[in-house]
């Protein structure tokens, strides 16, 4: 009963009020309805924030592995990766080669970083970076992304 009275008074139904007041109430309702429809956009903003890495050409997996394909030879990407580690003061622990894949292991504080450079063609290299924290329990996608972004700067325009 109270809800029906409230709704009637809000909409101006069954009341003797002036035309201006009814217009104000209807305008207020329209503004509130429009504002509530726009709240659904908050989800889109969150999804956009998650996709920021995509705008830089860096792809992420849900497991925290970050990867990018460069239009550059493997040797050039390797030099740029080692330069990025140097710039970021990350210590290279080991490098090894297996056929068309070069693996670089490094250490930064409590993070173990592994970079895999796979020669897809003589002029194309896919870089995969994993930064593990606390003995591999947690993954640090932000550090992995930064390694790729710094490498990209040093590779230069391709």
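Q: What amino acid sequence fits the structure above?
A:
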């Amino acid at each position: 009963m109270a809800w029906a009275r409230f709704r009637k008074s809000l909409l101006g139904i069954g009341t003797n009020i002036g035309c201006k007041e009814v217009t104000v109430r209807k305008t207020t309702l329209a503004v509130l309805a429009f504002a509530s429809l726009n709240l659904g956009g908050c989800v889109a903003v969150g999804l956009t924030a998650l996709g920021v890495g995509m705008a830089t050409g860096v792809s992420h997996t849900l497991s925290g592995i970050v990867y990018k394909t460069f239009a550059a030879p493997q040797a050039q990407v390797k030099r740029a990766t080692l330069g990025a580690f140097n710039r970021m003061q990350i210590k290279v622990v080991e490098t090894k080669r297996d056929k068309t894949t070069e693996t670089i292991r490094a250490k930064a504080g409590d993070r173990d970083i592994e970079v895999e450079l796979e020669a897809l063609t003589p002029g194309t290299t896919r870089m995969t970076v994993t930064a593990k924290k606390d003995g591999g329990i947690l993954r640090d996608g932000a550090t992995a992304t930064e390694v790729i972004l710094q490498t990209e700067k040093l590779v230069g325009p391709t």
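Q: And what stands out in the fold?
A: The longest helix spans residues 19-38.
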